[in-house]
Write a structure and sequence with these properties.
Strand content: 35-45%
Strand order of the largest sheet: 2-5-8-13-16-19-20
Helix content: 10-25%
Order of helices and strands: HHEEEEEEEEEEEEEEEEEEEE
Oligomer: single chain
Distance between the termini: 48 Å
Number of strands: 20
Number of helices: 2
Largest sheet: 7 strands, mixed
Radius of gyration: 16 Å
Length: 162
């Protein structure tokens, strides 16, 4: 109940102001929030897992972080509006009543300096390497290395950054 109330309070604050209050509320929820993290009020945080946002990170409008295990976001990461990051999924069950079988959780790790474009989706078990760019609308289903631009569905590296 306390967590839900604190996250509700976050939504009442101005969208792109009062960042120090937002950081305090997220810390009270139990998340690890670094110095100068800026979270837009319309961003949503769901699930019983752990979230780490390191210093200087930006979480854009209407982004959603759903954690049943761990979402770790490095320092100076820019997450654009309407990005979805989730850790929960299911094992495919071809013989049971439901194809979505047993639920499982897989961590998501975003290393320092990453830029994630608008409307991107980061699925469970993904890792994005340092200083990479995820193009708008990309769906990340696996690991993306450092210093590259990845785009598409599923996201694939299309260019190295040097």
């Amino acid at each position: 109940m306390k967590k839900a109330f604190l996250l509700f309070l976050l939504k009442l604050l101005p969208e792109t102001r009062c960042f120090s209050i937002k950081r305090s509320l997220l810390r009270l929820v139990g998340y690890e929030i670094g110095h100068d993290v800026r979270v837009c009020s319309s961003a949503r945080f769901l699930g019983a897992g752990h979230i780490i946002l390191k210093e200087g990170t930006w979480i854009g409008h209407e982004s959603m972080l759903v954690s049943t295990s761990l979402i770790s976001v490095g320092a100076k990461v820019d997450i654009a509006p309407k990005v979805y990051i989730g850790t929960g999924t299911h094992i495919v069950d071809p013989v049971g009543e439901r194809t979505a079988g047993q639920s499982i959780s897989k961590d998501v790790v975003i290393e320092d300096g990453v830029w994630i474009g608008t409307g991107s989706i980061l699925l469970p078990g993904t890792r994005i390497g340092r200083k990479s760019v995820i193009a708008a609308g990309a769906v990340v289903t696996g690991n993306i290395g450092s210093l590259c631009i990845a785009a598409g569905v599923p996201a694939k590296p299309i260019k190295n950054i040097s």
